[in-house]
Specification:
This protein has one domain: GMP Synthetase, Chain A, domain 3. Helices cover 40% and strands 29% of the residues. The chain has 2 helices and 3 strands, in the order αββαβ. The protein has a 3-stranded mixed sheet with strand order 1-2-3.
């Protein structure tokens, strides 16, 4: 799975960088009977909901084209937690 996640990172990284969005982490996790592809993003100054939606719209068609994961999964795109700033 690590090689698949790295291939996903390689394929989405450049498109996200056009909007100054960086990938913090990519994981594939199972919770109960559901699989989640979690992509955590970061950006200088933080990421708002509109940026998450935009990033999801960039990532989704790339993942569909790559078709690297056989299992059905939920794409979960979220921002890196900032903690108390």
């Amino acid at each position: 799975m690590e090689s698949i996640l790295e291939k996903i990172r390689e394929n989405i990284k450049e498109e996200l960088l056009k909007d100054e969005i960086v990938i913090d982490s990519i994981t594939f996790e199972t919770e109960g009977k559901y699989h989640f592809l979690r992509i955590v993003l970061d950006k200088t100054g933080g990421i708002d909901l509109d940026t998450i939606v935009k990033a999801t719209n960039i990532i989704n068609p790339i993942l569909d084209k790559l078709d690297l994961i056989e299992e059905e999964y939920i794409l979960d795109v979220l921002s890196k937690e900032r903690g108390n700033e």
